[in-house]
Recover the amino acids of this structure.
């Protein structure tokens, strides 16, 4: 990683506000963890007085330019580069890779930032990192990527998939080597990245959440509503939850399953629902606005997530901030959030019987035990406060040492 100059303190004695460029291959209106993190980070930094510029693909190839967009209650400057739809995916847009450095030169010349924060090493962040490195502008990189997040959309044979992933990680290493610091949401994700591309010093920094935005309902009530929120893609394994709900239906006649989010697997999941005889128990809500999303958490009784590719899982943190017990796959980052037997349960990935058993334990828990799980979720999410996340990134941007 390349050492670079630290911005000078403001003459008043405190730090001056920074001009920050955030490069994001996915951003609003996309609905996924990386996009949500980039939005909250950018808005949080703007709320602290920094001049934040987001560089991301346009929605529609012709709708490019520089816009003021209202994100998370803040006005942000968003540079929308000409975006192209990736048709194997239901919403993914990208910038032609061979144009990324050209766009980076234009943005960096116009904005003259103190620091660049790359949210993806694949296209936009890759171009920004290389040009910023040439110009001596410090770069902080955050990795949100796992192979499972990509392979479903390459349309390549499995053997070529492996070749593409290997080349992509090699290129990622070259990009990360040009960065002042490399971060990722959890210690597990940091260890994964260090082992995958042979780098060290990856810093785990939570994506963060503002728990004030969520409304826990701690009043006693009957428990029957299972909830999933997220993209409907293969690595989320929502069909595992559907099968578990079907197993529980005979003994828990009031059980229902709310699915919030869109994705390329929705039709397949609707077919699963019909095959399992769950049409009257499962509701596909599609993509919803923020108010509807928060209401979905408040009405639910347990959050279920069978994903095997979560580097942190913002939706799980949102569920916890809403006072929900969580049942999740014992894979990657979910064990960092779910304290087995305390704020919910972990189940063996893909094991329908195990998931059904853990959901049963939550939904049939005594009022005292259920309230204990709710309170444990609320306590567990405290360490993921967004203000701590913003403090840490500000220090990285300025080249200051982090707290031990």
């Amino acid at each position: 990683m390349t050492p670079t100059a630290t911005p000078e303190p403001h003459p008043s004695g405190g730090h001056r506000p920074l001009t920050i460029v955030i490069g994001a291959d996915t951003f609003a209106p996309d609905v996924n963890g990386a996009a949500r993190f980039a939005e909250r980070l950018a808005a949080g930094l703007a709320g602290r007085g920094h001049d934040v510029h987001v560089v991301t693909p346009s929605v529609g190839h012709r709708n490019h330019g520089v816009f003021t967009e209202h994100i998370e209650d803040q006005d942000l400057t968003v540079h929308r580069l000409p975006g192209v739809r990736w048709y194997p995916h239901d919403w993914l847009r990208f910038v032609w890779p061979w144009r990324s450095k050209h766009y980076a030169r234009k943005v960096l010349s116009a904005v003259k930032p103190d620091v660049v924060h790359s949210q993806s090493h694949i296209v936009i962040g890759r171009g920004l990192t290389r040009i910023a490195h040439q110009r001596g502008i410090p770069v902080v990189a955050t990795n949100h990527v796992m192979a499972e997040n990509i392979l479903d959309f390459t349309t390549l044979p499995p053997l070529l998939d492996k070749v593409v992933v290997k080349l992509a990680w090699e290129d990622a290493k070259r990009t990360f080597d040009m960065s002042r610091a490399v971060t990722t949401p959890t210690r597990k994700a940091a260890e994964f990245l260090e082992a995958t591309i042979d780098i060290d010093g990856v810093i785990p920094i939570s994506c963060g959440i503002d728990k004030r935005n969520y409304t826990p309902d701690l009043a006693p009530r009957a428990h029957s509503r299972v909830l999933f929120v997220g993209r409907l893609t293969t690595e989320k394994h929502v069909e595992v939850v559907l099968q578990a709900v079907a197993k529980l239906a005979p003994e828990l006649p009031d059980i229902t399953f709310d699915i919030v989010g869109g994705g390329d697997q929705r039709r397949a999941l609707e077919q699963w629902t019909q095959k399992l005889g769950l049409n009257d128990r499962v509701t596909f809500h599609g993509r919803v606005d923020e108010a509807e999303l928060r209401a979905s958490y408040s009405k639910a009784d347990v959050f279920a997530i069978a994903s095997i590719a979560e580097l942190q899982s913002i939706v799980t943190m949102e569920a916890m901030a809403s006072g929900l017990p969580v049942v999740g796959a014992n894979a990657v980052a979910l064990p960092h959030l779910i304290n087995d037997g305390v704020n919910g349960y972990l189940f063996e990935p893909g094991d329908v019987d195990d998931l059904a058993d853990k959901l049963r334990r939550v939904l049939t828990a005594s009022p005292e035990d259920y309230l204990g799980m709710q309170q444990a979720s609320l306590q567990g999410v405290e360490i993921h406060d967004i203000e701590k996340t913003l403090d840490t990134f500000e220090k990285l941007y300025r080249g200051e040492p982090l707290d031990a």
Notes: The mean pLDDT is 90. The longest helix spans residues 158-176. Residues 17 and 49 are 6 Å apart (CA to CA).
